Amino acid sequence: MIIYLPVNSPERAEQLRVLRNECAFAMTRDTTPVTAAKQRRFFEEKIATGIIEGFLAFDGDEPVAYGLLVPSEDGRIWSSTGVAESRRGEGLGMAVTIENVRRCHARGLPIWAEVRTDNAGQQKICRRIGYLWVESVTRPGMTADVFRCGELAP
Ligand SMILES: CC(C)(COP(=O)(O)OP(=O)(O)OC[C@H]1O[C@@H](n2cnc3c(N)ncnc32)[C@H](O)[C@@H]1OP(=O)(O)O)[C@@H](O)C(=O)NCCC(=O)NCCS
To answer: How far, in Å, is the centroid of ligand 1 from the Cα of 99?
Structure first.
């Protein structure tokens, strides 16, 4: 059984870091590995302060996926999700993406996502669950689609 637990301790932030680094290649902004020292600061400055909400999906004791709600300066909330390399293709990506949408909608806000055009899995997930395409963005080395989800698909 998969359970969701908050990233509410340095230990869980470290588990998040390991997962995030396995997913870094798919990120649209920073694809560099996060160090343990940088993650400690991230936990203290962003998570412990409540600026960023994060959860881990656990299968027993094993962290297998994560979701983050990341605000931008313009007030939008962005989804960041990922699945352990060894656990892809089991439906976890879909599950944590939906969980992140629900958490944002519970705040009464739409959720935004920026997804590389070559990220076939996340493109499929977002389009299927009710994210709507807003615009394309191009940055050195990648193109991405910006999606907004105001309501989950039935
Ligand atoms: C993208 C990612 C989250 C998908 O997670 P996952 O657990 O493998 O996805 P799921 O098992 O829930 O699959 C959902 C659907 O996407 C499809 N899919 C998943 N990966 C795919 C891929 N690489 N190519 C094509 N389709 C893919 C699945 O077949 C499934 O479709 P189906 O229900 O029609 O069979 C995962 O590959 C990952 O963590 N990637 C790195 C991080 C990342 O991209 N995060 C999102 C950043 S915006």
So the answer is: 15
Distance CA 51, CA 71 (A): 7
Q: For residue range 22-59, list pLDDT tens digits in order.
A: 999 999 999 999 999 999 999 999 999 999 999 999 99
Are 129 and 97 in contact, with CB atoms under 8 Å apart? yes
Question: In angstroms, what CA-CA distances link 106 with 25, 69, 86?
Answer: 30, 12, 31
Query: Could you identify the atom of ligand 1 that is nearest to the CA of residue 26?
Result: 44
Coil vs helix vs strand at 109: coil
pTM exceeding 0.90 = yes
Domains and CATH numbers, the chain: 2-149 (3.40.630.30)
Contact 97, 152 (CB under 8 A): no
Q: Does the beta carbon of 93 sit less than 6 angstroms from any atom of ligand 1?
A: yes
Nearest to 88 by CA among 147, 28, 26: 26
**Residue 92: phi, psi to the nearest 5?**
-70, -35
Strand partners, 70: 78
Question: Which residues make Cβ contacts (< 8 Å) with residue 121, sequence separation at least 6?
Answer: 88, 93
